[in-house]
Design brief:
341 residues; Neuraminidase; 2 helices; SMP-30/Gluconolactonase/LRE-like region domain-containing protein; 6-blade_b-propeller_TolB-like; 4-stranded antiparallel β-sheet; Hetero-Diels-Alderase-like
């Protein structure tokens, strides 16, 4: 572990106080990002270059917030929506559902609307309810399982399970129920959050457990999403105060964790399936971003050159029950300078 931050943050956007920015997904069309908000039922389009201010592109009235997001198909995204109180730190079981956000709308001129200026001018994307999950406790991370079949996986942080959802038929079922995914609120100041981020790669489901400060991989059936072998523990409390949230996998098979106490943590070689060391490469210092909630690598040519890792934050998760809640940010870290790959 480095004793001092190595990577400098490039702060692209700062939201108003009380805005908990929760998750993000790179837009394949132009390299910008869609970001979800947990403190309001909103999704924003964010500029990866700082070219424009956040654009509200989707709202979900009747809900408290939006969590995981993933793109499946051209400019079509899927999000986990439900009622989680950022002030009380509690979820409302039975309130959870999966929705579609379709950016393939038409502008006033009748042409396909793909540029950010069109969204700024013409309003929000189309949204559609895909599936209600009344048995879910707290839907969180979302990952693509089978793009051909239209299947995604959604983690349930409260019940320690993984749902499979077919976005074409609306069929949904729990396909994994494993104790490695279960929460333990006593370990994290009363916040019951088990499985959090998840990602599918080469026949494995990778996931972290926020309360237990663990990182696993699990062989799965790439059609059904069910487990095809035992869990493999890759880290276990090696760096116990990081409070891991989401993560990103890079093309070398490494993982980069966004952590609530401000760290970006590097796990080298998770694809090898061996016990790993964890290295803090950024964060946890006065004046630096705190409350990191999600991490995704950029997709533009410049992003690839810099190794740009984009991160969302809430500022401080424990401040949202106070009279002065923190403010979320959209931040870029350029990881190529580390020389890890």
């Amino acid at each position: 572990m480095f004793s001092d931050p190595i990577l400098e943050p490039n702060i692209l956007t700062t939201f108003p106080n009380g805005t908990w920015v929760e998750n993000l997904s790179a837009r394949a069309a132009d390299g910008n990002f869609l970001a979800t908000v947990l403190s309001a039922p909103e999704v924003y389009l964010l500029s990866s270059s700082g070219e424009f201010d956040p654009i509200l592109i989707a709202e979900f009235p009747g809900y408290l917030g939006v969590l995981g997001i993933v793109e499946l198909g051209h400019d079509v995204f899927y999000v986990a929506v439900g009622n989680y109180s950022t002030t009380a730190g509690t979820s409302t079981p039975g309130s959870w559902s999966v929705w579609e956000i379709d950016l393939n709308g038409l502008s006033r001129g009748g042409e396909a609307k793909h540029h950010w200026r069109d969204w700024k001018r013409d309003g929000q994307a189309k949204t559609k309810l895909i599936a209600e999950l009344p048995d879910a406790g707290l839907l969180n991370g979302v990952a693509v399982l089978n793009p051909t079949a239209g299947t995604i996986l959604v983690g349930d942080s409260l019940k320690g399970t993984v749902w499979s959802v077919n976005v074409r038929t609306g069929d949904a079922a729990v396909v994994i129920d494993d104790e490695s995914m279960a929460p333990d609120a006593d370990l994290s100041g009363g916040l019951a959050i088990g499985i959090n981020g998840l990602s599918v790669s080469n026949g494995y489901l990778y996931y972290d457990n926020t309360n237990q400060v663990t990182f696993y991989r699990l062989p799965i059936n790439e059609t059904t999403g069910s487990a095809s072998g035992p869990t493999e523990l890759l880290i276990d409390q090696e760096f116990s105060n990081i409070f891991p949230d989401d993560f990103a996998l890079d093309f070398e098979g490494n993982a980069w964790l966004a952590c609530q106490y401000g760290h970006v943590a590097f796990l080298e070689g998770v694809a090898a399936g061996e016990r790993l060391n964890i290295t803090a490469v950024a964060g946890n210092a006065t004046g630096l971003p705190h409350g990191l909630t999600a991490a995704k690598f950029g997709t533009t040519a410049e992003d690839l050159k810099r190794g740009s890792l984009y991160v969302t934050t809430n500022g401080d998760p424990f401040s949202y029950g106070s009279d002065n809640p923190a403010q979320g940010q959209f931040v870029r870290y350029d990881t190529a300078v580390l020389g890890f790959y």
